[in-house]
Amino acid sequence: MQCVEQDIVEAALTTTAKLDPDCAAEAMMAFANSQPDIFAFEMAFTEELRDEVREIMIYLLFVVYRAFEMTATEPIPKIDSDDIVATYEENQEFVVGLDEHDESSFEQLAQSETANQPNLFVYITEALVDENSEDDIELDDQEFGEIFMILKTVIDVVDAATN
Questions:
Q1: Could you tell me if residue 1 is inside a domain?
Q2: How many structural domains comprise the chain?
Q3: Helix, strand, or coil here: 66?
Q4: Does any domain span residue 13?
Q5: Of 135, 142, 154, 151, nearest in space to 48 by CA
Q6: Which of 147, 158, 128 is nearest to 37 (CA)?
């Protein structure tokens, strides 16, 4: 898929933020029905997180997916759980590999891993930091890392499926 532009990310965020609770619930159900394996992945990998942290995760996931939908010229194909798990494992290996690199190469490695969808990665990183301050929800390093890994996995699989 082409790169999701910054204005699309902002539009997805704005339209999501304006949804009333009933419409938001309907939209989330539509997402769960169209991408049941992504939804199941998110639910399974966040079940041990605090409820308020899970809410942040679900919101960010919805904005990211909505941005992909707004960019796509065709419907996004259903993502298979095998692809999701394989991508998650690849992302875990990448993170483990970061420990082996010095700090100067870290930024270059991070940029190469987010090159296809930089605007989405900037959005989720900034949102995780901003969510901390706005809602008085403090994410510990583990929660931040888990949410980031889940969202990175979703971005990677949706991006791959739409190419």
A1: no
A2: 1
A3: helix
A4: yes
A5: 142
A6: 158
Query: What's the distance, CA 117 to chain centroid?
Result: 11
Total Cβ atoms within 10 A of residue 119: 16
3-state secondary structure of 8: helix
Instruction: Confirm if 65 and 31 have CB atoms less than 8 A apart.
Output: yes
In the chain, the amino acid numbered 40 is: A
- Compute the distance between CA of residue 46 and CA of residue 55 in angstroms, rounded to an integer: 10
pTM listed for this prediction: 0.87
**Interval 30-36 mean pLDDT:** 95
What is the pLDDT averaged over residues 52-63?
93
Q: Where do we find the tokens 């980031």?
A: 148
The dihedral built from the CA positions of residue 10, 15, 20 and 26, taken in this order, carries a sign that is negative
Q: Look up residue 155 and give its two tokens.
A: 């971005």
Domain span holding position 111: 6-161
Residue 128 pLDDT? 83
Of 159, 4, 7, 124, the closest CA to residue 71 belongs to 4
